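Q: Can someone sanity-check these two? First one:
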Amino acid sequence: MGKSTQPLLKRCKALGINPLVMGYGKVSKRNQKETVRRKKSEYALQLNEKQKVKFIYGILEKQFRLYYEKAARKSGVTGEVLIQLLESRLDNVVFRLSFAQTRKQARQMVSHRHITVNGKIVNIPSYQVKIGDVIAVKESSKTSSGIKTLIAKNSNRPAPEWLELDQEAYSGKVLALATKKDIDYEVKENLIVEYYSK
């Protein structure tokens, strides 16, 4: 299945996501108003939760299932490990460090070889960062007016506790792996686990 071409705000509303989570500016009260719908089945709730998380991280079904299978094999609570794996993606870390306004922009920065991990260029958005990794904007890209403008525009967004940001050096360090309390959206990860464990 390909990417959804549905307008972003419409998709956010259908999945119950605040567009601020996706990195999109101010939201009017009209967008936050919830519509009353009939009660959803258990399957519909599980599917909606999975679709929501897939949409937030911009991942297609096959890759998302692989993340779930990897999380199921690791020790710990499967749902929490799944969220940890998704948060540890390089494109997400670039977004969390405020080097990009959205995860889509972050993915593009990584793909276009503007980001380094421990001094080496990494152009794979799904690259898994580890504790102690230093993520930075490539030296030659730091002088780019487009990159400077983009980072300056997002400088007021604080980095989460599990990341250490050095705004002047355009770099950040992974201090720990993300936990559920570090994410800025509501998720019932147990529903995703139930969906896949059938």
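And here is the second, same format, sequence then tokens:
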Amino acid sequence: MSIEKRFLKYVSYDTQSDSTSDSIPSTTKQLNLARLLVKELQEYGINALLDDYGIVYASIPSNNDHQGDVIGFIAHMDTSPDCSGKDVSPIIVRDYQGDVITINKEKQMFLDPNVFPDLLHVIHHDLIHTDGNTLLGADDKAGITIIMELVQYLVKHPKFQHNDIYIAFTSDEEIGRGTDYFNFDYFKADYAYTVDGGDIHLIEYENFNAYSALVEITGKSIHPGSAKNKMINSISISQEFDHMLPTFARPEYTEGYEGFNHLLQINGNCEKTVMEYIIRNHDLNLAHQQCQDFKDIAEFLNKKYNYPMVKVTIEETYLNMKEHLLDHMYIVDNYKKAQKACNIDGCSSPIRGGTDGAMLTYKGLPCPNIGTGGYNYHGPYEYVSITMMQKQVEIILKLLELNVED
């Protein structure tokens, strides 16, 4: 199976996770892809299983008397709740020339290098994009594809020397639950790489500190005909609350190391309004200050209206893995050596998001993030470079080869 056909097969599965669900995994449809992957791995003769929490584990035993580090590779099966992943209709572009790509003429949706400058990094690549009605699912089915291509290569080339290799495909990564039930008895790597990034020139080892904020506003619903000096409209208060947060600390105004507050969802009526935010910052102290802003605004509004109507609940989602990886930078350096050997100039940049790797690093498994060739995740402008996916397989093989030689 070609890497292109494999990817198209995987994205045909709707695996969207659901943050409002209490089930594990959050959606049973994720298990459809999980079962397929177990079946394919077993057909390759690989020891694989699907556990009760919707995580696929596999291992490839050493064929070199256990020389070198034991390395793991991880990708996630679910797609983001932000955009539908049902009935994905991928469109292939051969030998991209740097022009404007029409995604959906009717909706006037285009991939324009002036708007999406990363397109200039994939000129002459073969690309796959959406038809404008769904996300693509490269996050992270491109990562799954790369790992499965690696497996296929190792099976077909039994003389390729390597130590034990561990593989995991997690569920519910997009809603922050991907590693809640991760089983280290099944995954005994010294360290791992999440194959869940974008450009394959990058290896990422620092990510946001992440928190969620739930803002619940209870108003006073009075008939509008007799509401003067009595009604408190929770919708209006929600707007006041949001406007008191720093305007330029929103995703649309930030980049690089700049943190943000992002209003994910708002539902309400006069009596009750609920707002869901995510809070992000690479600097933990600044992240704490952002969390405090939410509490301070709630206290201010409750005093202003002399009514305890605003309740803020903040929960930690994940933390920056950088501090835990600084003592294991050889893992990053080894990957950069493999990139260089494959004529790729490697570099690092902060992740403006998070991965299973951040949580696993805090649990004792050092786990930086490497690229898949995917861009514009979580929406209908998503696309992936087939060329980069193929190159990433080559880089990982070189990483395994250098691991044995070192």
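A (reply): Looked at the second one. The longest helix spans residues 284-304. The mean pLDDT is 96.
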